[in-house]
């Protein structure tokens, strides 16, 4: 705001200079002096004419005419001396009141017709930007009111105008657009954020979520690729599986939706209030699978840990379904992030390793579970594992991890 006042003062000063410069350079106006100068010029011109006429023989009495010319000049001299009309006013007596009037009038008109209130509100919102940004980052905007959302949007757009390479700012603007279901703004803002920081997982997730709102199939494919890439990380945000499940359900890939919702259940545990909601979503997807004639065979596995097991916090859970003869090559397998135990997972045809050999083709089977600590499924040294007995495909499987590879 200080720049506004400084600029306005400078403009008023410039106007004052141009308006009152003539008054400061006022010249004295003496009518008698001007008349004397004019008479002298006229007398000299007339003398020159008389000389020319005398030379040409047109005038014989040149001296008489000169005498008459002098007499006419004497007659033009006023008989009474001019009385002074008083001392002229000082230019400053005009300048100062006029300057005050112009200043008051300028600011008064701006206050009435200008955007002083809007500018003050904008300045106030800009000062609140750090606080509102932190609120959005920590609570995903859930506690922000509509007024705070509008204020944050204005503040962010102002900051991004001056700092266009602020990746976090673009991400926050994209999140607000997502909350308002503004797909175009969300995609544009998240794309700029992703271009600035392509390795940031929060930005990848936000960009994928924005692309999912797009009606362009290419955008949706890119969203799916980003989410699947995030799902392979050691630590996976639960929103990744939520978006994957939503996308699979919308594409009527109900088996994949059931799989991802099942993973979410394992991550949050049965005590979470969202657990029952996910169960209802899984039941709905299974009904859709039956109506579509899709194979509904699946294996539900509950996994527990023996007290002697020392769990590596970086480990992942690998569940594999094998033929009843115990062949090492699994028919189906899945990889899950480490969660609280006991945990329950469900495998189906979506987890089949080969198209020619599906889980639903088995009548009996056995299940192995391993805690993979190095991320390489081919190495087993030091990994803890457990396996089940041979069971029918429709039976629930309970496994205790209590053995360790040498």
TrEMBL record:
Q: What InterPro entries does the entry give?
A: C-type_cytochrome_biogenesis, Cyt_c_biogenesis_CcmI, Ig_CycH, TPR-like_helical_dom_sf, TPR_CcmH_CycH, TPR_rpt
Transmembrane ranges? 6-24, 92-113
Kindly list the places in or outside the cell where this protein is found, as annotated in its UniProt entry. Cell envelope
Q: Where are the TPR repeats?
A: 167-200
Superkingdom in the source lineage: Bacteria
Q: Which residues form the Cytochrome c-type biogenesis protein H TPR domain?
A: 118-275
The Cytochrome c-type biogenesis protein H Ig-like domain covers which part of the protein? Answer: 299-402
Per the record, the GO terms for biological process are:
cytochrome complex assembly
Q: Assign the protein's first listed, main location to one coarse class.
A: other
Write the record's keywords in alphabetical order, separated by commas.
Cytochrome c-type biogenesis, Membrane, Repeat, TPR repeat, Transmembrane, Transmembrane helix
Q: Which PANTHER family does UniProt cross-reference here?
A: CYTOCHROME C-TYPE BIOGENESIS PROTEIN CCMH
**In its UniProt entry, what is this protein called?**
Cytochrome c-type biogenesis protein CcmI
Name the source organism: Vibrio xiamenensis
